[in-house]
Amino acid sequence: MLTIAGTEFSSRLFLGTGKFSSPSVMAEAIAASDCQMVTVALRRVDLDNPDDDIMKALSQREYTFLPNTSGARNAEEAIRLAHLARAASGSSWLKLEVTPDPRTLLPDPIETLLATEKLVKDGFIVLPYMNADPILALKLQDVGAAAVMPLGSPIGTNQGVLSDAMVEIIIEQARVPVVVDAGIGAPSHAAYAMEMGADAVLVNTAISIAGDPVAMAAAFAKAVEAGRTAFVAGMGQRSKQASASSPVDGTLSSDLGFLA
Amino acid sequence: MFQSPDFEQLKKQIQCSTASDVERALNTTRLNLDDLAALISPAAEPYLQQMAKKSSEITLARFGRTTQLYAPIYLSNYCTNRCVYCGFSADNRIKRKCLTFDEAENEAMILHKRGFQHILLVSGEAENAVDVEYMEAIALRLRDKFAAVSIEIQPMSTEHYHRLFLAGITAVAVYQETYDRDMYKQVHLSGKKSDFDYRLETPARVAEAGMREVGIGALLGLSDWRAEGLAIGHHLNWLRKEFWSTAFTVSFPRMRPATGEFEPLEIVSESNLSQLIFALRLFDQDVGLIVSTREEARYRDGMLKLGPTRYSAGSCTAPGGYGETDSEAEQFSVGDHRTLDEVSAMIRDKGFDPVCKDWDCSFQMNNV
Amino acid sequence: MNITLNGNTKSFQEISTISDLLHSLELSPGTVVVELNTTIIQPDFYSSTTLAESDQVEIIRFVGGG
Known about the structure:
The complex is a heterotrimer.
Chain A: E1 2-4, E2 7-9, E3 13-16, H1 23-33, E4 37-44, E5 64-67, H2 75-89, E6 93-96, H3 109-121, E7 125-130, H4 134-142, E8 149-150, H5 164-173, E9 179-181, H6 187-196, E10 200-203, H7 205-208, H8 213-233
Helix pairs in contact in A: 1-8, 2-3, 4-5, 6-8
Chain B: H1 7-15, H2 19-26, H3 33-40, H4 48-63, E1 66-76, H5 101-114, E2 118-123, H6 132-142, E3 148-152, H7 158-166, E4 169-173, H8 181-187, H9 196-200, H10 202-208, E5 213-217, H11 225-242, E6 247-251, H12 270-283, E7 288-291, H13 297-303, E8 310-312, H14 340-349, E9 353-355
Parallel strand pairs in B: 1-2, 1-8, 1-9, 2-3, 3-4, 4-5, 5-6, 6-7, 7-8
Chain C: E1 2-5, E2 8-11, H1 18-24, E3 33-36, E4 39-41, E5 56-64
Parallel strand pairs in C: 1-5
Antiparallel strand pairs in C: 1-2, 3-4, 3-5
């Protein structure tokens, strides 16, 4: 069972709600994924279409909402969005996203750390989206992040967990759950992240732009479960050298003949 | 707060380890505590050479072809504790001495002339002989003359450790002696040291105070050495999570003769000691592993490239012993009597670089 | 009166409170968050908060996002 900020989740797959062709496809895909937590963003109401409301397709009674601060370019903007999010959802869950570069949407480490510290003090449950920087992960935990969300590869690029070496270090050192978020383009990527020891993954684009998002969501659910089960079962390590599975005496260079 | 695992559970886990557990541990790059248990277990003994090879490869990659060198200075053998295994126990009738500031500086300068840049100040536990003010004064005197000054003295408060850090102390070693609560009670008869938990929490206080490096360890032979090793692994794991910017070392004091004739629970052989060192190296690639002059020259020579990263040399374990030889008041007898030059020559012969200076106090200097 | 609504200047007749504004925009109060001159207004105060000339109003809701 995954626990974040005292809340239990039986599914280790979180879904994003963006880029779907329609709210009903979105709702079906989310249902097919068995996920329990979804991200949402905050935007100005389209005054020409007052009925266009994602909440008609998605209920906080069924899913934990994780509002994100997408659009924020610095800590100040993120903090403002955080307060709007809390007013909208009535809960303190927050995916902190500070992305000053609209081309790459990569997270600003400095503003993210500043905002996390402020928002934690303000009672938010902060899940910061971050580049896979192990030191940053430690510092975010030091200031009270409820989990850390290192990216696999830039948002929407579907390149998989290019940051794997760094994510492994983050997982090894983490005192809070680690959610690999962004760039997961295929179920195999999700399984890979889980096999590495990630506590959960967040997937959006790969599902919403798939030919059949509902089927893809189900595939991701299976992959996350498979990866997690494999991790818990204890996988053998990949090795570049052959390694005998029986003891080999006398052929190794470390001579222990000096022992009394 | 670090919760030391139940010692009997540790022993059980180790005894249940199988050859296939060992093989899995040997084939993994990220070992967990279960893997450490396997490598420390009797099932790993046939794999000792393989463990040695892996340990030497990891150590080479992380530390290069180098060995750090240091020497201890015993400041005082006054002690209010009664530890049945220790030469300095309050019960032992030995010549007691506490160095004055000038005497301490003389000892230090003898070491300095010999070429040492890293020194370890050691004392028994006696507040009226060695307290934080005494240590602070000594630290202030010595820090300009040495690259790094470490201490191994009685447990202190975070506040006192912080004072000593500001005075120029870089590292603190404090060994739990034994992680076996029952044995701990049996061998620490009285004095502040009889408080198991206060001692157990000390490495955390040291790290909290900002010290750059914390040394932990157990006195091998007091209780089941394998379980001690696994307990050290638990402790190290916990400390690394809590204090991610602190460096850690493990020492391996192995019971040797001392005044008072304490019989160790078990004899820990050189092969056992090596297994423990290799296991910890495989478990933690970055931890410093210290082998002191308690061990024989032959052993230290053989182990040089296989895992240890720091050796003492030319050690004397009696206060004032560098100035005047007086082996009566020793804490323990030395196994390797070679001088710094001799040990350095051995290190060079083996193709390694003996490192006398690996830090500079000025990195942490404050205007005190 | 003229107010800035979601970044655009808009003119409204016969509107005095936030409730009035939402009603005229056909927005159900429970589905949006309202920010008046950078302060978030709690729904309980929609009917008692009056708007003034040149006020800046942001009306925000959840949308899909990753």
